[in-house]
Amino acid sequence: MCLTGAHDMNRCLFALALCLFAAAPASAQAPASTATKDYLALSRELLNKYYETQKLLAKEDSDWKLGKEVIGSRVALLQAQMKELTEKTAEQQKTITTNTTEREKLDAKDKELQGTQDLQNSSIVKLEERVHKLWPMLPAFLQNQIKGQYERLPKLELKPEDIKSGIGERFVNCLIVINAVNKFHGDVTVINERRKVSDGRELEVRVIYFGLAAGYFAGSGETADVGGMLIPGPNGWEAVEDPKVAALVDEVIAMNKGDKVAGFVSLPVKVR
User: Fold this and answer.
1) Phi, psi of 5 (to 5 degrees)
2) To bridge 211 with a disulfide, which of 11, 28, 107, 185 should be the other Cys (CB 3.0-4.6 Å)?
């Protein structure tokens, strides 16, 4: 994999896949002319897959950014409308009389305010549903970072009348979670984790995450034989152990930290 920067995830994913196809054992290679044709065919197929992946990643990134901007604008607009309507309602409450006409005007404003509140409620409910659906797909360390904001969100099974937090607070908590996920998804992250492997041992391993696309882990020292890949899914990250990955993960992490010159590393890739 070519790691030229922490934020160049798309190029890294392409390099992963390209190196995977190029890493066939020497004993399995055909004669030179046949191997060249096969290589060119594989290259064309891989380029097609790469461009398809690029489009999907670009769309997802665009959706995240657009969603963040829309939500931020909506919160500001709705808060301004709420403040304006609240101020107008307060002024009318001070000057209201027994006059039927004034009462009718106030009732109309109350209905307008209620309509705004209904719109806000509908928007925040949809946003919270999205966050709840996304939550199981986040790595444990990222969940720990934003656990406080997530736990302040109302549970999906709660009835509207049982929700105690205000609309503004709920919007802010959703935005904090979404911003953290967006930042993680656009970066390459290296951390240490405690992980239980198939032989029953619980070890500390080094993990490198390529956003929400893929992750790889490896032990060190006496546990250098431990390695594998992490595959994201709707129910969490699935670990697939592969000792051969350990040395490759060491090399990729060294490149990411700048301890080694960037180059190509062939890592396994599994796409759901």
Assistant:
1) 180, 155
2) 185
Planar angle of CA 238, 250, 266, nearest 5 degrees: 70
Q: Tell me the CA end-to-end span of the chain in Å, nearest whole number.
A: 20
Residues 246 and 133 occupy one common structural domain: no
In the block, residue with structure tokens 């010159």 = 261
The reply to whether 132 falls in a domain is: yes
* Range list of H helices, the chain: 9-22, 32-95, 100-134, 140-145, 147-151, 167-185, 245-257
Q: Tell whether 107 and 176 lie within a shared domain.
A: yes
pTM beyond 0.70: no
Q: Are residues 118 and 232 in the same domain?
A: no
Rounded Cα gap, residues 105 and 220, in angstroms: 74
Segments forming the whole domain that contains residue 114: 57-185
Find all residues with CB under 8 Å of 30, minimum gap 6, and list them.
38
88 and 170 part of one domain: yes
Domain count, the chain: 2
User: In sequence order, which residues have a C-beta less than 8 Å from that of residue 245 and are 6 or more positions away?
Assistant: 216, 218, 227, 228, 229, 267, 268
- State pLDDT tens for residues 17-75: 444 444 444 444 445 667 777 878 888 888 888 888 888 888 888 888 887 887 888 77
Residues belonging to the chain = 272
Place of tokens 């619980």: 202
Q: Are the CB atoms for 135 and 150 separated by under 8 Å? A: yes
* 3-class state of residue 241 by DSSP: strand
Residues 174, 64 share a domain? yes
Which residue's entry shows tokens 């959703």? 174
